């Protein structure tokens, strides 16, 4: 049984990695490494932040606000040494639906509420449990999000014009896009294809080069030089501001809170999963260990403060975090500097961003969606485990065609059932006889087992919990039909839950009604306590330390 944390351990759970890094000693060489990594990440974050914001149904400037405010706080307060916070592609589906239903002010309020919920999760030390999302569920919802992100970019990739607006539900969206195929803009399509080609080519030839920024810059230059008839950031959203706005609370009337609450819960669930998954990826790349509760606390603080400055949902971003590690980051200072570099871009070059074509930003997100799709992992799971494939496909299908939260919840439930089945299959009952063993079977007991002079022993192996009790309950019923001389060996039972203990309490009562007593051998102290809590009484059960004490116990157990 795990010991409760000491006061020093409890306080260190929330200690930011920035403090740890500074305590280790921070040299000029470390600052240079962090500055270079921060600049590298900022170059990646610039086009992504604007593209994600536009795809989420809000202005591109809000993506930059989110990166500046949220990214700084995640790095300054977080429990991961390399985590980069900001707007994430995984949130596009939820954020766009939220903004469409309750407006931008409602989105800001939902983001703030989710920040409060994340802080509460951290204080309840839930960070260690959020990481237990099963792998097939993670792959399923990530791949499902990738499909939805790509579908949301088809309109701008092709330069289509939709007269009645773009539906949120994917099948209706595809139907509307097909109906608008006659409005295809060849210039937008060429720009999108060219942007994807540049991104892929640079990635293959010069992996360290900022391929996203180069591709978007070339697309903007092409629009200006050739005067291409395509939508740009300026033509749709106007000029970008040079600085974030002054802090202000979003509208928070009772009706506003009621409308924002369901969205806030969804943001909280996805934000906790995404941020801790990103931190785990950083751990795997760097060999470090993050503090999950400190990370949740930082994510909560970032989501409380970001909407005050016009930003929306902040979470750990896997691609930018991985870029940060590969760029040679020394610690959280690189994430803080990445936010500062994005702010510097707004101060100096915000007007230039207006020339960026939306088709190029859609191409950036199309590449992001392709990289998110987890194609190899899906195929590997489908090949090696039918049960995991069912969990994955159920999660994937529900995320794409129904709802993200519903997909996660149902996927988690299915994964739980798969786990229960696998665990219960590992619990067996084996029969032996003393003094002469005449029968030994695995997991099944034959009827008519009494033989004069023999004592039948049923050896349990594995955890005896509700799944095992349900699967092997018929065996126990069969055992109780022959109460004259048998014992149950618990020496290989590491744990028993209340359902499992109750099944033996029922067995003991059934035997007592026939005049016998149940003999239990080798039960661990915690197993014995669970059996007693379930209602087994001293006049129904005889506990013995091991099978050597069986002869005396049997003489007491056999009914007269």
Automatic annotation (TrEMBL):
Keywords associated with the record: Membrane, Transmembrane, Transmembrane helix
Domain STAS: 445-557
One BP annotation, GO: transmembrane transport
Annotated Gene Ontology cellular component terms: membrane
Chief location of this protein within or outside the cell: membrane
PROSITE patterns: STAS
Compartment(s) where it occurs, according to its Swiss-Prot or TrEMBL record: Membrane
InterPro entries (alphabetical): SLC26A/SulP_dom, SLC26A/SulP_fam, STAS_dom, STAS_dom_sf
Transmembrane segments: 35-56, 63-84, 90-123, 135-154, 184-202, 209-226, 260-282, 340-370, 390-420
Presence of keyword Transmembrane: yes
Membrane topology: Multi-pass membrane protein
Superkingdom of this protein's organism: Bacteria
Cross-referenced PANTHER family: SULFATE TRANSPORTER
Protein name: STAS domain-containing protein
């Amino acid at each position: 049984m795990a010991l409760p944390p000491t006061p020093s351990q409890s306080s260190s759970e929330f200690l930011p990695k920035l403090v740890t890094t500074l305590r280790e000693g921070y040299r000029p060489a470390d600052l240079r490494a962090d500055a270079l990594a921060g600049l590298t990440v900022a170059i990646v974050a610039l086009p992504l932040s604007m593209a994600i914001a536009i795809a989420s149904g809000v202005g591109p400037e809000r993506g930059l606000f989110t990166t500046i405010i949220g990214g700084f706080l995640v790095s300054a307060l977080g429990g991961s040494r390399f985590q980069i916070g900001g707007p994430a592609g995984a949130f596009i589906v939820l954020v766009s639906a939220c903004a469409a239903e309750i407006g931008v002010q409602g989105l800001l309020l939902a983001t703030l509420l989710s920040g409060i919920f994340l802080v509460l999760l951290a204080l309840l030390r839930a960070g260690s449990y959020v990481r237990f999302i099963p792998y097939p569920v993670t792959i399923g919802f990530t791949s499902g999000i990738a499909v939805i992100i790509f579908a949301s970019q088809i309109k701008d990739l092709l330069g289509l014009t939709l007269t009645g607006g773009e539906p949120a539900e994917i099948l209706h969206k595809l139907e509307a896009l097909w109906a608008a195929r006659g409005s295809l803009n060849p210039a937008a399509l060429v720009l999108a294809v060219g942007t994807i080609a540049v991104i892929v080519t640079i990635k293959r030839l010069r992996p360290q080069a900022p391929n996203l920024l180069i591709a978007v810059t070339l697309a903007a230059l092409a629009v200006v030089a050739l005067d291409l008839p395509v939508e740009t950031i300026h033509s749709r959203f106007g000029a970008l501001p040079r600085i974030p706005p002054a802090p202000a609370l979003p509208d928070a009337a009772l009706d506003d809170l009621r409308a924002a609450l369901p969205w806030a819960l969804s943001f909280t669930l996805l934000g906790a999963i995404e941020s801790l998954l990103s931190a785990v990826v950083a751990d795997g790349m760097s060999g470090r260990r993050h503090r999950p509760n400190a990370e949740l606390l930082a994510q909560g603080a970032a989501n409380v403060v970001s909407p005050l400055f016009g930003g929306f949902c902040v979470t750990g971003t896997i691609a930018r975090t991985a870029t940060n590690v590969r760029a040679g980051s020394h610690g959280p200072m690189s994430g803080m500097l990445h936010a500062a570099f994005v702010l510097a871009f707004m101060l100096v070059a915000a007007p230039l961003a207006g020339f960026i074509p939306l088709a190029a930003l859609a191409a950036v997100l199309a590449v992001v969606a392709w990289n998110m799709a987890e194609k190899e992992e899906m195929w590997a799971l489908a090949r090696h485990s039918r049960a995991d494939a069912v969990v994955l496909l159920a999660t994937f299908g529900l995320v794409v065609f129904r709802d993200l939260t519903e997909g996660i919840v149902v996927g988690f439930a299915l994964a739980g059932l798969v786990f229960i089945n696998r665990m219960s299959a590992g619990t067996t009952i084996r029969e032996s006889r003393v003094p002469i063993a005449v029968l030994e079977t695995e997991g099944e007991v034959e009827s008519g087992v009494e033989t004069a002079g023999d004592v039948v022993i049923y050896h349990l192996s594995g955890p005896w919990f509700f799944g095992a009790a349900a699967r092997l309950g018929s065996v126990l019923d069969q055992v109780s039909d022959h109460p004259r001389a048998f014992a149950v060996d618990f020496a290989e039972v590491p744990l028993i839950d209340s359902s499992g203990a109750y099944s033996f309490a029922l067995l003991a009562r059934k035997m007592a009604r026939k005049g016998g007593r149940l003999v239990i051998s080798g039960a661990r102290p915690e197993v014995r306590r669970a059996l007693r809590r379930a209602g087994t009484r001293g006049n129904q059960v005889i506990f013995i330390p091991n099978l050597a004490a069986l002869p005396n116990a049997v003489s007491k157990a056999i009914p007269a």
